[in-house]
Write a structure and sequence with these properties.
By secondary structure, the chain is an alpha/beta fold. It contains 24 helices and 28 strands. The longest helix is centred in the first third of the chain and has 27 residues, at 24-50. The protein is globular and about 70 Å long. Pfam families: AMP-binding (PF00501).
Length: 727
């Protein structure tokens, strides 16, 4: 999912969207708009007479034993799905079979770098700008041959078969080729986020005894400073995505250092027979970075885990296949992206690599006059995290609001009509009315993502109902909201394409069973009415081995029942709807009991308050020794600065504006309005807030790569601010 971790780059992704026009009267004239309005009124009435909303049973009860609970399985399968097709039991087998099946089809694509230059801003800062050309593709057969050559070259350069190899790079074609090369020699791949801090990087490499590090040239620069702390590292393979300085190579000369191309060439001339894995072998040790001060934990994911999730997802996405084009820009070090790309490889889909910094024509790193990734690739499939989709929605609504007048009235009218059509009947989204609004209003918005996107999968965190509906209406596509963790190899539940409901994560994927277990302390019970509620636990082919070198933590959350069935306890609280779809409603660790006994769900409150136009990011904090909560708010620069300008507020810089009493009052009033809309209780609304001028990014260590809050790190960094709010 390129790297999505840079908040500034994500904002640049929105500039093109935020400045797009709604060409209503200008393009279609008054008569066209009048006809559209008449059809808009008549069509839904006729449709509502012809079609009614239907309820489909998507999951059924399952008897899988263990601790008393409410278990469900996907209703379309009587037994769990394990492989996408016969023989594809490992990542190595899947890729080899796919390369033969789709041999001449496009597989992995990267944009050609034409020119790199640096532009200096008025304050003296330098910004990199890239002139990028068309995508250059490897076919499936070519990508497989490169993986085979890399596998042979890796062994020939001296990699020990009993040690691990780590990939420390942004998402790109070489990441997948390197991983597939390792799999052909049954080598376990350790995945490391490109944005990882020094201490966590050293911990990850040392704990797993990595002997070979595969990195891009940018990450290579970080190695000399920590090389003396690395206990087992012997080899470095660097991707030549930009020139590598001789000084950097000289600083790591005590290690065997080769370029990626050199390793491929070495393997091409010195073939080594494959040493293929079994489905139970560990394919990946994927480090997860929870919202605590603990060091990251390495989740051991088997080949069988990944192919089971792949097989399950392939049954959900409609008409997935060789005609699709997938934009890859999220971190491959995250299970969400790794699972998604494996699904694409199994389906013969073309994978084009990009990044949030180059995604649109106006992204931060795109040179003026150069097209962004989506404009060149024209993808049909994308995945995203909620934070990015939220910002797209906010930017579009903000632009429409600024236009005002008839344009805004027509947009609002069309939005309401389409919303009614979607929620009124499944057929409503195909109505002639929708075709008219699509051409008049929504076409420019869709063009920002290439104009061909037909399906969006969202995961990593809860997606708000408003944002999901925005994507349904303005992009005209189904949004599949997935639920899973690294420990379940991303596979737990997935919204099916024909489910138009919001706020839910769908039925269990056909590779697993999902069960709710009562949590008495939190007041969630499977006997609750109208729906059973409890902690979400998962069992099936997607459940991973456990945590590397951490038996105590493994035994804490992976529990074997009296039947010998091994369940993973997620810590999330869910409820099953009558049709078998799961909804995540809380998290055990995010619930705090206030002084007077009221329970505050921090995640629920943050989701409600994040709808304020002034909020870029927010963390709610509740001290159990007080009867109210407080909040740290990273305000949206543009929104707050515009308010200040309109209000005649004088300030020297954004930091000073964040300390302005009137600005704090304005944001707090906005939070109160958002809380009212979100139906929060009085004690859930922050009584005091502080505005923080600097964004929270993975580089700062305050959010994960999926943009989830790291609560303990935030509390530690802003301890003084929180103390002041309670005094």
């Amino acid at each position: 999912m390129g790297e999505v971790s840079d908040d500034n780059s994500n904002m640049s992704f929105l500039k093109r969207i935020a400045t797009s026009d709604v060409p209503l009267l200008k393009e279609y004239g008054v008569n066209g708009v009048v006809i559209a309005l008449l059809l808009a009124v008549v069509t839904p009435v006729l449709l509502s007479m012809m079609f009614g909303k239907k309820t489909k049973q998507r999951a059924v009860r399952a008897d899988v034993g263990g601790e008393e609970g409410f278990a469900m399985r996907n209703s379309r399968f009587s037994s769990l799905v394990e492989v996408p097709w016969e023989g594809a039991t490992t990542m190595a087998a899947l890729f080899e079979m796919a390369s033969k099946k789709y041999s001449r089809r496009r597989c992995l694509g990267m944009r050609k770098l034409i020119k790199r230059e640096f532009v200096e801003s008025s304050d003296g800062r330098k910004f990199e700008k890239l002139h990028l050309g068309e995508y250059e593709w490897d076919t499936y057969a070519e990508a497989f041959n490169r993986a085979c050559n890399f596998a042979s070259g890796l062994i020939k350069m001296g990699h020990d078969l009993d040690s691990h190899a780590a990939i420390f790079s942004d998402t790109r074609a070489e990441w997948i080729i390197a991983a597939q090369g390792c799999f052909r020699q049954n080598l376990t791949v350790v995945t490391i986020y490109a944005s990882l801090g020094e201490d966590a990087l050293v911990h990850s490499l040392n704990e797993t005894q990595v002997s070979t590090l595969i990195c891009d040239s940018n990450q290579l620069k970080k190695i000399p400073a920590i090389s003396s702390k690395l206990q087992s590292l012997k080899h470095i393979i660097y991707i030549e995505d930009e020139p590598v300085e001789a000084e950097t190579l000289n600083q790591v000369k005590h290690l065997t250092t080769l370029s990626f191309t050199e390793v491929e060439e070495l393997g091409k001339t010195s073939h080594v027979d494959a040493r293929l894995p079994s489905s139970s072998d560990t394919a990946v040790i994927m480090y997860v970075y929870k919202r605590s001060t603990d060091l990251p934990k390495g989740v051991m994911i088997t080949h069988g885990n990944i192919v089971a999730t792949t097989a399950a997802v392939m049954t959900i996405v409609p008409n997935l296949g060789m005609n699709d084009v997938y934009l890859a820009y999220l971190p491959l070090a995250h299970v969400f992206e790794l699972a998604a790309e494996t699904v694409m490889l199994a389906s013969g889909t073309a994978i084009g690599y990009g990044s949030a910094l180059t995604m649109t024509d106006t992204s931060n790193k795109i040179k003026k006059g150069t097209k962004g990734d989506v404009s060149v690739l024209n993808p049909t499939l994308m995945i995203s995290v909620p934070a990015i989709l939220d910002r797209i929605r906010d930017a579009v609504f903000k632009k429409v609001g600024e236009k005002g007048g008839l344009a805004k009235k027509l947009f609002d009218f069309a939005y309401k009509r389409n919303l009614a059509a979607i929620e009124g009947s499944w057929f409503g989204s195909w109505a002639p009315e929708r075709m008219i609004w699509d051409n008049i209003i929504y076409k420019p918005i869709r063009a920002m993502l290439g104009g061909r996107v037909r399906f969006v999968l969202c995961g990593g965190a809860p997606l708000s109902s408003d944002t999901q509906r925005f994507m349904n209406i303005c992009l005209g596509v189904p949004v599949g909201q997935g639920y899973g963790l690294t420990e379940t190899c991303a596979g737990a539940a997935f919204t099916e394409w024909d489910d138009t409901s919001v706020g839910r994560v769908g039925p269990p994927l056909p590779c697993c069973y999902v069960k709710l277990v009562s949590w008495e302390e939190g007041g969630y019970r499977i006997s609750d009415s109208p729906m059973p509620r409890g902690e979400v636990v998962v069992v099936g082919h997607s459940i991973t081995k456990g945590y590397f070198n951490n038996e105590a933590k493994t035994n804490e959350v992976y529990k074997v029942d009296e039947r010998g069935i091994r369940w993973f306890y997620t810590g999330d609280i869910g409820q099953f709807h009558p049709d078998g779809c799961l909804e995540i409603i809380d998290r055990k660790k995010d619930i705090v009991k206030l002084q007077h006994g009221e329970y505050v769900s921090l995640g629920k409150v943050e989701s409600a308050l994040a709808t304020s136009n002034y909020v870029e990011n927010i963390m709610v904090y509740a001290d159990p020794f007080h009867n109210y909560c407080v909040a740290l708010v990273v305000p949206a620069h543009q929104a707050l600065e515009k308010w200040a300008q309109n209000s005649g507020i004088n300030y020297k810089g954004f930091e000073e504006l964040c300390q302005n009493d009137q600005a704090i009052k304005e944001v707090q009033q906005s939070l109160s309005k958002a809380a009212k809309v979100g139906r929060l209780e009085k004690f859930e609304v922050p009584a005091k807030i502080v505005l923080l001028p600097e964004p929270w990014t993975p580089e700062s260590g305050l959010v994960t790569a999926a943009l989830k809050l790291k609560r303990e790190q935030i509390k530690t960094k802003f301890k003084d601010d929180l103390d002041k709010l309670y005094h």
